[in-house]
Write a structure and sequence with these properties.
- With 55 residues, the chain is mainly β.
- It has one helix at 5-10; strands at residues 21-23, 28-31, 36-41, 44-45, 53-54.
- The chain has a single domain (5-54), classed as N-terminal domain of TfIIb.
- Strands 1, 2, 3, 4 and 5 form a five-stranded antiparallel sheet that branches.
Length: 55
């Protein structure tokens, strides 16, 4: 399964409120501005800055 286009349209980086790039193969949402990766586990985006990892 993938994230729905409607969900992707409203998701933003919790740190800078910038746009996110969805990398389906890696199950990640990436913020280019903050250089952070947010994991997607079981089709649920984990949008916590404590769970994010640097690029």
């Amino acid at each position: 399964m993938t994230l729905s286009p409607q969900l992707l349209a409203v998701l933003v980086c919790p740190r800078c409120k910038g746009a996110l790039d969805y990398r389906e193969g890696d199950a990640l949402l990436v913020c280019a501005a903050c250089r952070l990766r947010y994991p997607v586990k079981d089709d649920i985006p984990i949008m916590l800055t404590d769970e994010a990892t640097p690029l």
